[in-house]
């Protein structure tokens, strides 16, 4: 049974923010917390004194992370583990008990000029369960902030809708659905203007299509307040702009377009670099809304 939220820990401030976010989310979901430190060092081959030094360091690091988790949610079950494998491998290794993974946007390593660290990117790219990447900008949700979800009609998009509606129902949060795309015309002209007068019936048809995608989810979750925007803009820019006032952005790992051999689509890739709130990446295939709850 998948009853565990796995959190990557490396002692950095970003990973401790991820631990705090995960503790709150796991408590709301009724999950236990597993804090994992992945070490690429082959500790068993080290001299004994050095090996003990590493083990003491890992123990202090994980104790600090546990204290941060308990400070957020005192009642949540927390365990910790050291795995002697690179963290990007240790975090995505198959574990039937793991329902979700949470990582900080950046850890201790990597190049300081990069927005996202390599571990977070690789975990978001390859994990089989939903991954939430928590950045330093605003790890705690703003009061009244919506959950923003990208809508594109793809199988990955339906999985993102399933995740977003579930989160909103759990947190009593608003859902803000955004469909965004840029309109191309003749290369000599550039992009078409986005005013409704230029879009004509095609713009209205797009809005009806988006409303049709959302309709069964709204029936399945009648208590979730839903708003939607159709924006004629670059999807990364539209979703990143909405993330300024959001508590969470949810997207599928891949959308309708892009190269099929890439693990992440271009929109998800862009949001990992530009979202201003925690971002959940969902890799599941197509999802269908649950049956609407019947009144008692």
TrEMBL record:
**Where is the secretion signal located?**
none
Q: Name one Pfam family in it.
A: Usp
Q: Which domain of life is it from?
A: Bacteria
MF-aspect GO terms: ATP binding
Q: What Gene3D superfamilies does this protein map onto?
A: HUPs (3.40.50.620)
Q: Which UniProt keywords apply?
A: ATP-binding, Nucleotide-binding
Question: UspA domain: which residues?
Answer: 1-134, 147-283
InterPro entries reported in the protein's UniProt record: Rossmann-like_a/b/a_fold (IPR014729), Universal_stress_UspA (IPR006015), UspA (IPR006016)
Xref: SUPFAM superfamilies: Adenine nucleotide alpha hydrolases-like (SSF52402)
Per the record, the similarity remark reads: Belongs to the universal stress protein A family.
- Matches recorded under PANTHER family: STRESS RESPONSE PROTEIN NHAX, UNIVERSAL STRESS PROTEIN RV2623
Q: What is this protein called?
A: Nucleotide-binding universal stress UspA family protein
Origin species:
Streptomonospora nanhaiensis
């Amino acid at each position: 049974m998948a009853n565990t939220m796995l959190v990557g820990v490396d002692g950095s401030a970003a990973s401790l923010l991820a631990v705090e976010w995960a503790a709150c989310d796991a408590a709301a979901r009724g999950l236990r917390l597993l804090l994992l430190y992945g070490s690429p060092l082959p500790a068993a081959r080290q001299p004994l004194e050095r090996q003990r030094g590493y083990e003491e360091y890992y123990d202090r690091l994980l104790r600090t992370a546990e204290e941060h988790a308990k400070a957020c949610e005192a009642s949540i079950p927390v365990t910790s583990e050291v795995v002697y494998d690179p963290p990007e491998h240790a975090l995505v290794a198959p574990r039937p008990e793991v329902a979700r993974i949470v990582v900080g946007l950046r850890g201790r390593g990597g190049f300081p000029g990069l927005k996202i660290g390599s571990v977070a990117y690789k975990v978001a790219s390859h994990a089989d369960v939903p991954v939430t990447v928590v950045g330093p900008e605003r790890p705690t949700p703003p009061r009244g902030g919506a959950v923003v979800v990208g809508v594109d009609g793809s199988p990955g998009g339906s999985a993102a809708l399933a995740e977003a509606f579930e989160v909103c129902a759990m947190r009593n949060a608003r859902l803000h659905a955004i469909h965004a795309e840029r309109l191309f015309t003749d290369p000599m002209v550039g992009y078409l203007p986005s005013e409704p007068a230029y879009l004509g019936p095609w713009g209205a048809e797009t809005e009806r299509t988006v409303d049709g995608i959302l309709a069964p989810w709204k029936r399945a979750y009648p208590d979730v307040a839903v708003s939607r925007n159709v924006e004629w803009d670059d999807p990364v820019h539209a979703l990143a702009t909405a993330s300024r006032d959001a508590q969470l952005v949810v997207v599928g790992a891949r959308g309708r377009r892009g190269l099929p051999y890439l693990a992440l689509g271009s929109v998800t890739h862009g949001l990992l670099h530009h979202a201003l709130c925690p971002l959940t990446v969902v890799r599941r295939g197509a999802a269908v809304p649950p049956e609407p709850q019947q009144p008692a």
